Structure formats: C-alpha cells, structure tokens
Fold this sequence. Notes:
The structure holds two protein chains of two kinds. By secondary structure, chain A is an alpha/beta fold. Chain A contains 20 helices and 20 strands. In chain A, helix 4 crosses helix 8. The model of chain A has no long low-confidence stretch (mean pLDDT about 95). Chain B has helices at about 25-40, 75-85, 100-105, 105-115, 160-165, 180-190, 215, 275-280, 305-325, 335-345, and strands at about 50, 65-70, 90-95, 120-125, 170-175, 195-200, 225, 235, 240-245, 255-260, 295-300, 350. In chain B, the strands form two sheets. An eight-stranded mixed beta sheet of chain B has the order 2-1-3-4-6-5-11-7, with helices on both faces. Chain B contains ten helices and twelve strands. In chain B, helix 2 runs parallel beside helix 4 (about 105-115). By secondary structure, chain B is α/β, with parallel strands linked by helices. Residues about 330-335 of chain B have low confidence and may be disordered. Chains A and B meet through helix 1, strand 7, helix 9, helix 11 and helix 12 of A and strand 2, helix 2, helix 4, helix 9 and helix 10 of B. Strand 15 of chain A pairs parallel with strand 2 (about 65-70) of chain B, so a sheet runs across the interface.
Amino acid sequence: xxxxxxxxxxxxxxxxxxxxxxxxxxxxxxxxxxxxxxxxxxxxxxxxxxxxxxxxxxxxxxxxxxxxxxxxxxxxxxxxxxxxxxxxxxxxxxxxxxxxxxxxxxxxxxxxxxxxxxxxxxxxxxxxxxxxxxxxxxxxxxxxxxxxxxxxxxxxxxxxxxxxxxxxxxxxxxxxxxxxxxxxxxxxxxxxxxxxxxxxxxxxxxxxxxxxxxxxxxxxxxxxxxxxxxxxxxxxxxxxxxxxxxxxxxxxxxxxxxxxxxxxxxxxxxxxxxxxxxxxxxxxxxxxxxxxxxxxxxxxxxxxxxxxxxxxxxxxxxxxxxxxxxxxxxxxxxxxxxxxxxxxxxxxxxxxxxxxxxxxxxxxxxxxxxxxxxxxxxxxxxxxxxxxxxxxxxxxxxxxxxxxxxxxxxxxxxxxxxxxxxxxxxxxxxxxxxxxxxxxxxxxxxxxxxxxxxxxxxxxxxxxxxxxxxxxxxxxxxxxxxxxxxxxxxxxxxxxxxxxxxxxxxxxxxxxxxxxxxxxxxxxxxxxxxxxxxxxxxxxxxxxxxxxxxxxxxxxxxxxxxxxxxxxxxxxxxxxxxxxxxxxxxxxxxxxxxxxxxxxxxxxxx
Amino acid sequence: xxxxxxxxxxxxxxxxxxxxxxxxxxxxxxxxxxxxxxxxxxxxxxxxxxxxxxxxxxxxxxxxxxxxxxxxxxxxxxxxxxxxxxxxxxxxxxxxxxxxxxxxxxxxxxxxxxxxxxxxxxxxxxxxxxxxxxxxxxxxxxxxxxxxxxxxxxxxxxxxxxxxxxxxxxxxxxxxxxxxxxxxxxxxxxxxxxxxxxxxxxxxxxxxxxxxxxxxxxxxxxxxxxxxxxxxxxxxxxxxxxxxxxxxxxxxxxxxxxxxxxxxxxxxxxxxxxxxxxxxxxxxxxxxxxxxxxxxxxxxxxxxxxxxxxxxxxxxxxxxxxxxxxxxxxxxxxxxxxxxxxxxxxxxxxxxx
Lengths: 606, 353
C-alpha cells in the first residue's frame, strides 16, 4: 500500500507524513518513506513548484522502497493535484481539499477548469471534502486566529487517514502535547482537528469502494525495532564507532542540505563527549577535523557535493599526512548547486578520484538508512586502523527516508581500540605497521615524539621533506598499497539475491538497493536468471568481484547519475558493463528497472 | 620565592633540519627569537605545536624541535582550532604570512580571532609574495611594482592590526623581525588566554628589500618607532626631539613636539583595553607627517574566555549531567558505556517483534 501526502510547502505535509510513518511502524508494518520537498523554505503559496510531498509504502512483506505509484493520494490544493495526479494508480483513492480550490489557486496551478468538475478524475475514487472548512469548525472553540486554525488542516487530514488504515491516534496526541507544551491551546486545537478527521471517517457516507483498509503486520526477524532516517543512523554510528575505537570525536561541519541534520544530531549528543564545531566554511570544517585527528581525536566532517568539491585539497593533505578522518557525503543533484533537496548518486567519481595527484582513500556507500549506522562504525574502524581518510557516501534519499530498523546491541560489536605510538626508540613519523602499512599515530603531548608533518612529500625512512624522485615514486605506491590492502579486511564480493551465475547481474551501490532488490525479486519469480549484487565498498572494491561478474552473460549497472560505477567496473574488472541511468533527482521506480532488465534479457537472448 | 630556572634551552627547540630561507631573510631573526623565548616561557617541546599554512614563513615548523604541522594555504587557523578542540592543553602557535593569512586565508583568520581560540598567531608581514617569486600581496602599498603589477598595484592594502581589531580580536600586538623587543611581545602574546595576533614586520631581501627600512633601520629607525606601554604616555622620537600624541577635536591623533621638555600633560596615555585607541595607533603611518612612523608593542588586550575552553566546558557539563542522572542505576564499569549507547539507540519510540 502506497500513500502520498501532497500540499503547499507550508501545509505541513512532511509532519503529516512522519506522524503517519510513526503510527504505521507502531502497527508492526514494514515501511519505507520518501520525503520530497522544494529547496525554497516557503515557496509562493499555491504554485506547482512549491508543492511538498511525502510518500510512504507499507505492508506485511519486506518493503524496500517507498513505492512507485500511490494507491492513495491526498492533495491539499490544485497545485498538489496537478503535480501528483499522473502517478496515482487507476482506481486509486484521491482525497482532495476543495476548500483550497479557489479560482486563484486553480489559475496558479494552471487549471482553466476545475478538475473536480470536468470529469478528468473519473477513473479515480474521489473524496472531495472541504477540509479547510471542517477544520475551522473543529478548532473553533479553541479560539485560534484564522491563520493558526487553517494550519490545523493537516491534522484533520491525518485523522481521516488514521481512520482509513486503522492507526492509533494516541502517539500523535502525545507528540502534539509535547511539541506545543508552551502553547497548550495550539496542542488542543490540533488534537481536536485530528479527532474530527477521524470521526468524519467513521460517520460520513463515503463513496462506494472507499472503506477502511487493513494491512496485516509484517513478519520481521525478531528483535527490537525503531524507525530511523539515514542521517540519524549515521550520527549514532559515528558515536558508537568512536567509542569502540576509544577516541573522542570532533565533528566539524558547515551547514549544507541534505547533510545539516547530521550536524544537528551530533550536536545533540554532547553527553557522549562529542565535540561539534560549526565552521566558517567547508574548508575550515575539514581542516579543523584534520587538526583534531592530528591531536588524537577522530576528526569527522560531513557535507554534500559542493562542499566535497571545496574539501578536496584538505583531503589530499590528510592522505599525504596519513591521518584518520571520516568524510560523510550526503549526495544531492549536481553539478554546482544543482538540486539541493533532490537525491542523486552524484559523487562516486569525485570521491574516488577528485583530488590532485595520486590520492587514494577508502570509500564506503550505505544501501539503506539503517546501514548508515553500520557503515559509519566501519568507517571509523578503517580510518583508524589504516590511518587514512574514509569517505562515507549516503544521499538525500537515505538521509531523509525512514525505515524500520532492527536496533543492534552495541556490546555485541567487537571493539577496535586505536593504537597510539608511545616509544621513542626507532620512531619517525612514517614508520609503518608492516601488515596494514598504517603509519604510527604519535599525538602532540607524547614525550619524546615531537615531529613535523605536512603536505610536502616526506622521506619514507626519516619523515623529513624529500624531493628525491625514487622516494616520491615509492611513497605514492605505498599510499596506494595501503588502501588496496584494506580489501583483505572486507567481505568478498557476494550475490545479494539470486545465483552466483546467470544471464544478467544487476550491480548497484547506495540507495538504489531497495528498488533493484524488488525488481530482481519480481523477475526471478518469473523464472528469469537474474541476480542482484550490491557494493558497499567502492574503494577498495571487494575481492572476487571480477570473477563473480565474469560468471554472468550480462552485467547491468543502474545508477542515479549519468554513468559512474559502470566506468569504474569496466576499468577495474574487465567486465562488459552496460549502464542504466536516471538523473531526475528522484529514486528509481521498481517498474522502470523491471522493464529495463527485461528488455536487456530479451536483447541478450537474440 | 625563587624562580625555577628554565628546564630547556634554545638548543632543545632547534630541529636538526637545515634552514632554507634566503640569506638575509627576516625569518631567521624571528626563528632565533622564538627559539630563545620558548625556554623562558617554561614551554616544553612535547606540549608545543607550530601550525602553518603555505609560504616562506610557513616553513617555520620544520625548524622547531616541537610538534609541527605544515598544512595547506591559508587554513592554518582552522587546523589549529581543530587541534585545540581536540586537546586544549597544548600550547599552539600559528605561523602565517600576509598572503597566507590575509589573502587566501583571510576568512579563517577572521573567525579564529572572533572566536578567541587560545592560540598565538604570528603574521609575518613582508608585503610581498616570496615563495611564488615576488607578486604583490594584500599588504603591498598602492603602486607596488611586481611581476603581476608591472604598472603598479591598484588595490588598496589591508592593515593587519586593523583587520584583527575589526574581527573582534582580544589581543593585537606588533613587532619586527630584528627587534630586541620581539621576545617580550611574544611573551605577552603567550601569556594571553585567547587568540593573540602578532603582526611581525619582516624584511624580504630578495623581492621587497627595505620595505620597512625607514621604521626598522638600526641607525634612524628608533626615532620612528612608538613602543606603547599600558599606562604610559604615548611618546616617541629621537633624543632631544621627542614627540607625543594627543587627540584633536575630531577624534584624530595629532603630534605634539616635546623637544627637550617633559611636559606630558595633555598627551594620550596608552590604555591597552581601549580598541578605539588601538585602531588609531595601528595607522600612524596614515597621519600626515608620520608616514615613516609605526606603533609597536601590545596595542590592544582585553581578556575574555577562550572558545576552546568554553566548548570543552559545555561538553564536560553535558557528560556530567548525563552521568549524574543515571548514578542510581547499577552497571558494571565495563558495561556502563555500552548501556548508555544502547539507550541512545532506543530513545523515542521502539517496538519488539
């Protein structure tokens, strides 16, 4: 079941969606969400570009994506209807707030005739309700001004939807009381609106075919669950990772969409000793993080595409000085400012190679919101064990999307205490662990180990500045070998779903996991010999990937960019790779992938 | 009460690396002053860190036998801020230049100063780009001829002291490379518990030789130096031709010829806590008749809590409050941390399947 809420960016659709998500999780459904909002905080009211949407898919079986086409669409004004109607499945339920269908709003949305009157909605089940009027009536006794009263209409709508899907109202009631603790009249008005919407569902004569839905509980693996967004999970993962490494964390960041909530989440965790620093710019943010790592903390910085570009010189310094560092990149549409609030797998190539000189580092990519936690822990482990910067890729879709997440037990994760050099005997700054090739981490304040590091090339055996040609060649290769060796420490390439050989392997990375998984599942249930391989480690790539890909007749790489991983795989595995690219600021629909894979299979058969 | 003799000597702060500045470079004198001064301050090589950006001056850390980090162009204040946020107990010096600190790194210098991070920031000002071979810098004088301005520079220079005051710096001082008083200025900067900016006029004998000669020349310069002292009248000039400074009616400075006299009645008295006076003193060379004169010493000092100390206090308090809250709960010392983290992951709504 897929439900989409759509309205003006000031209509509170994101709140409505997230409350419905919480109530749905409470019912024991599996779910995935997709908040989709404009870059403008308050775009002009009633316009199509100011429409904000929130989609949720939920059900009894594994839900891996927010769904392709909604079964239920809530349109709070004509613009929201205009933007979203094409997606609604035929026969789907359409709930429209007629109170917003004024002449002006219709014109702003580009309607000459009201779609409520010209028969264009005939193929849907339509509930045309004056939600505005009913909300105002419901909150009347709470004495709100017209503006505040109108604002309650999202809660009226939520009440109706709660009734439709048999959701509990109490958690939302509690949440409203807490949120408006200082303005109880607002809390009570919103609760009245919520209840009124619910009562409307119970008592009103609804159009034929509209009835309460019942979605059975999902069958999850036993355990304790919560809803989590990618950025929240990543923040927790960084904190847990630093605890397991026995290090303090210094998070330096500059506000940028969609990474800012990482900074907010970490700033709220000071009780775990986390230091956060809102720097004057992206360069200062990463520079301060590197300075903190030099001082024996783990420096972490977070950003998105344009900020990554600004940080590249400093990343090179962290590579040259071989200091641990975690760089979280919550990707968004590019180039340049691009599409700040839209998702895109924009920065794989920038992360792998976007620096001057031969400047290798480790790159990880999370596939789901919950995985942002586990990969953040692993990023800390790799950064400190190998004395290297690690880029952790997420994207706007993972950062803001929620999913039920089985909460791990922290005490079951093996600690990986960071090693500081203390003996002066035989020390120089580039003395290495023979196994990992990590250089010694000697922290200022350690007696007898005073030394200098910097961006100039250093001699491999003394740590002093060296312009010697052979030394530079040697150091370049050591830096590359160190990153390559991390692969010994990672799981080998594996198939996510399906057999280890077949007609076609779909190779994905990052947030396309859910859509690919579902598409492959659908085709396999038709008997197609398709498998899904999903990469989490982009640098170094997992061992055994070349031979795994070689056992498939075709390798297809779907990406939300104009082709990045396909180039990497073609260059590094020798596989014949075909890409499938979507650069629309939106995730893949399962249908698009199923169609594309099917057509490849057909052309491959010929 | 007897003073403890310094445990370390100049040699202990001198690294084994060959110093590679041009012969006659003012940086040598500053390096020597630093290596002589640190033992006097009770500093230790293990607790001392020099952080630099890019440029001639930024080679400084390699010659100090302390911890050192030669970073990237202009960003040294940001690296130093991160280091202090990691370990506020370290004694951190930033070495930068007029190009590094005021051109590419102007933003970071501004913010380190306004935040009052506990650092000593030494800005070596030679009014030229040395390492890239002689282009004009943001402190070069109007009309400076250089490879990139063959017909003369058209952009107006920035005054480092005024920049710092404008940024909200709480300690601003000035010295020059070969000055005997430089160690005293460094000592004052070190004693200040916040961001201490010291502009050090520094001669580049190759690309901008004599840029400050009229002020710093050993024979004539003394007369053109106004060394300020808190609580003392503002007097300068050669013996027998002393001059003083007082305010005119439009709140500008004007010169009073004292000659042999010692009548200091209406002269200004230096108040290092007055940023307005510091602003005036920073630009003596703009006053007609004083083109060759500059003020030196601690021009401004006003105590305020250091940013890094306050950040750590805030975090420590949050940690303390959290542990007080659960002091009644019983947990083994080992398991306590993972209990806390497990609780963190479970805050808000959870459900069990």
